[in-house]
């Protein structure tokens, strides 16, 4: 994308940006285990990368290190051939959108959007023009004279986005910008962010714990685990082929439970014993397992099949429907097995609380991971489910 000399001068060092690279980035706080450990990330021009994981996995630390808000304990950050982790935050030219909006309550919307430009000593006329253009982008130009307290939560978040856009950054960093909004506003703002990203040709690094949010927005997902990169790929790749039970937990495989291998077959097929029944699944991780090995089974709620009473076979898991929730076109059901196992399913079939269900799943919908499951890692927020 060609730019004029004047535009290059206005944008500063970010004008030549083609690729940002975090190389072996580690961030440690005192004597605690590293919040981020040997983390590598490539962010190309036009990418929308979502950092996904539970609280404490290192995703916000990674964003803060890139932004210059936290110093690195080890590693480096590069913009093309220039090392930038030694530069102060204001010299990196990144736009920031925070979870709590961070608007000045005593300034009008217009002045809030102009703030970053004022700090950069942009002439008044240019400030007004660029702030007005940013407000048009987020469709708030008619609210320019209002105070933040006169706006809704969604409008305030759009002001925060406009402020980030006004400095014309080539990278926008967003730290869980929708988590303070209600469900309807989150959906609306997701659409707005995607529209702005596409219209402006932005590059975005986006922190979230919500897998639905990440899938709908990102061109690439990066799942973190205890400060390390667990899996990176397109939304389709990570959603369909989670490399571990940990990643599966964030990609909708709400049914995660321990099992034992009964038998192995060709094409990585394995029969596993779960809740007193035998299911066949596909071994995803590990070079191979043997009979009686401990494994973790992952099944999406929508992939559990309710067998008719007359068709319940030996491979169907018997479970009692405890909670039935109406979700419009489908029911969300929580069922419990005789030995205390909990299963979650979604179905368009009629289910009544207190009824006994025979549950099974197609073998290509059952993923099997070598090794056990660390339940302590799955304090996953409800939105991520």
Key features of this structure:
385 residues; disordered C terminus; 2 domains; 25% helix; alpha+beta; 31% strand; 10 helices; Rossmann fold
Coarse morphology = globular
**CATH superfamily name of the largest domain?**
P-loop containing nucleotide triphosphate hydrolases
Helix content bin: 10-25%
Tell me the number of strands.
20
**For this structure, what is the CATH class of the largest domain?**
Alpha Beta
Write the CATH architecture name of the largest domain: 3-Layer(aba) Sandwich
Largest sheet: 6 strands, mixed
Summed up, the helix count is 10
What is the SS-derived class?
A: alpha+beta
**Poorly predicted residue ranges:** 1-14, 379-385
CATH topology of the largest domain: Rossmann fold
Give a written overview of the molecule.
The chain has 2 domains: 5-240, Rossmann fold (3-Layer(aba) Sandwich); 245-384, Nucleic acid-binding proteins (OB fold (Dihydrolipoamide Acetyltransferase, E2P)), CATH 2.40.50.140. The model is unreliable at 1-14 and 379-385 (pLDDT under 50). The protein is of the alpha+beta class. The strands form 4 sheets. A 6-stranded mixed sheet has the order 6-7-8-3-9-10, sandwiched between helices. It has 10 helices and 20 strands. Helices cover 25% and strands 31% of the residues.
Briefly say what this structure is.
By secondary structure, this protein is α+β, with helices and mostly antiparallel strands. The protein has helices at residues 5-11, 59-67, 89-92, 109-119, 124-137, 153-166, 183-200, 211-217, 235-240, 245-250; strands at 19-27, 36-44, 48-52, 74-79, 82-83, 95-97, 172-175, 204-208, 220-225, 228-233, 255-264, 269-274, 277-285, 294-299, 305-307, 317-326, 331-337, 342-347, 356-360, 367-370.
């Amino acid at each position: 994308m060609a730019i004029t000399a004047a535009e290059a001068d206005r944008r500063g060092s970010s004008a030549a940006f083609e690729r940002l690279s975090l190389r072996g980035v580690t961030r440690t706080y005192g004597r605690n285990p590293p919040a981020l450990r040997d983390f590598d990330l490539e962010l190309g021009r036009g990418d929308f990368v979502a950092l996904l994981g539970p609280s404490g996995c290192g995703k916000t630390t990674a964003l803060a290190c890139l932004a210059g808000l936290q110093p690195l304990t080890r590693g480096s950050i590069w913009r093309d051939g220039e090392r930038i982790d030694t530069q102060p935050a204001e010299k990196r030219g990144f736009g920031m959108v925070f979870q709590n909006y961070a608007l000045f309550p005593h300034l009008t919307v217009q002045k809030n959007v102009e703030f970053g430009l004022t700090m950069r000593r942009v002439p008044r006329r240019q400030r007004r023009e660029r702030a007005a253009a940013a407000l048009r982008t987020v469709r708030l130009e008619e609210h320019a004279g209002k105070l933040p307290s006169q706006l809704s939560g969604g409008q305030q978040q759009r002001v925060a986005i406009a402020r980030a856009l006004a400095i014309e950054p080539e990278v926008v960093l967003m730290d869980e910008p929708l988590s303070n909004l209600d469900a309807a506003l989150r959906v609306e703002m997701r659409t707005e962010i995607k529209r702005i990203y596409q219209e402006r040709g932005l590059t975005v690094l986006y922190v979230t714990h919500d897998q639905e949010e990440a899938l709908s927005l990102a061109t690439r997902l990066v799942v973190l685990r205890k400060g390390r990169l667990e899996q990176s790929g397109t939304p389709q790749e990570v959603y369909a082929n989670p490399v571990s039970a940990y990643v599966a937990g964030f990609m909708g495989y709400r049914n995660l439970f321990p099992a034992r291998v009964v038998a192995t077959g060709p094409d990585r097929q394995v029969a596993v014993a779960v809740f007193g029944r035998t299911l066949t699944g596909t071994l995803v991780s590990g070079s191979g397992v043997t009979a009686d090995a401990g494994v973790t089974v992952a099944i999406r709620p929508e992939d559990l099949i309710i067998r008719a009473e007359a068709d319940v076979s030996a491979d169907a898991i018997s479970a009692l429907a405890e909670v039935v929730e109406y979700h419009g076109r489908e029911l969300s059901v929580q069922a419990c097995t005789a030995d205390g196992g909990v299963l979650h399913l979604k179905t368009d079939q009629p289910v009544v609380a207190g009824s006994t269900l025979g549950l099974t799943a197609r073998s290509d919908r059952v993923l099997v991971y070598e090794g056990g499951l660390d339940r302590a890692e799955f304090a996953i927020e409800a939105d991520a489910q």
